[in-house]
Amino acid sequence: AKRALWNTRQLTPASHRIWASTLVVSEPLVDGATPAATLSTATAAQKLGNETVDLLVVGETAPTHIPAGITKVYHVPLSNRLSETVANAIETVVKTKDCNIVVGTSTKFGSTVIPRVAAQLDVSPVTDILEIEAPNTFIRPMYAGNVLGKVVSKEAEKKVLSVRPTSFEKAELVDCTAVETVDGVAAFDKAEWVGESVSKSDRPDLGSATIVVSGGRGIKSGENFPILEALADKLGAAVGASRAAVDAGFCPNDWQVGQTGKVVAPDLYIAAGISGAIQHLSGMKDSKVIVAINTDPEAPIFQVADYGLNQDLFTAVPELTEKL
Ligand code: FAD
Known about the structure:
- The chain is of the alpha/beta class.
- The chain contains 9 helices and 17 strands.
- The protein has helices at residues 2-11, 36-45, 83-97, 108-121, 225-235, 243-247, 278-281, 301-304, 313-323; strands spanning 21-25, 52-58, 65-67, 73-76, 99-105, 126-129, 131-134, 137-142, 147-152, 159-163, 173-175, 180-181, 211-215, 238-241, 268-272, 289-293, 307-309.
- Helix 5 packs parallel to helix 9 (313-323).
- The protein is elongated, with a radius of gyration of 22 Å.
- The structure holds flavin-adenine dinucleotide.
- Flavin-adenine dinucleotide binds at residues 216-218, 242-245, 256-261, 273-275, 277, 279-280, 283, 293-296, 299, 312-314.
- Belongs to the ETF alpha-subunit/FixB family.
- Its cofactor is FAD.
């Protein structure tokens, strides 16, 4: 029946349709609030040409705090957070609430949900958008960030997009005063959401920290990582790493920055013992100030660094920590 309704809408002339709203898909709430990445997505959503921007939250509880500028908040009260279920929730809201643009965030969560819902809606998605030139014209990275492509979406009826959160300012977080509950969403029943185990840290979250101190293979062993952690603690920074450091078992997986890790754009990024491979750069080169500490003067990281220190990190980092 839902599919029939959708087909009917597709056959309705554009002039007779009210397609006015952009739907922002919230990342899972943190302490009842939409997280930082969704605040950036909400800013991007305002640039997509629609009069109103709505928010969709899938999860047990409705949000207490949401991005400023949201017209309606739709809450799908399901604890099953599998991407299939979230995609079903988006599809239901798009088909029943007259939203013609869906915009998510190019995080791990968004990257599992957005292509899935695009397939369900039979739309070609545009993902990982860095810039919105016009409501249908987007700049996005290709080939691990080696080139920037300009993509014009020819989807006239509806668009499904994801944006890179570090490329857009965060909207203000405001109180959520009204929520519309959306029932009747089918939870995916071929797998079960058992739970999640979130690593706890006293340090800021790597994805949204304003300062990041990262170590690479040059740190030589996991036992040496505390040298970088001491500097991070002095600066109130998050700790990151290259994939070589993660693969060597020097530090946890979720510290990885880069193409297959986290994309960060802090005010200050300190890379110690990292060569600057393209896959690492694609995850940090939008940082406002980059400091590189490396013994090899030819290391590619110096090409993107604002400040380069051609020195042994085992001397430079402790000295820096002490002087701070
Ligand atoms: P190396 O390239 O070995 O560099 C170590 C550096 O430390 C050298 O420049 C050296 O001069 C310096 N050094 C050594 N000793 C010292 C010292 N005492 N003091 C100061 N400097 C010192 N990589 C990522 O980081 N993130 C990703 O997400 C990622 N995704 C990938 C995806 C794919 C599909 C592929 C193929 C690769 C990916 N990589 C990724 C791996 C990437 O290509 C590099 O291999 C990796 O980034 C190298 O890590 P590194 O700079 O720590 O190590």
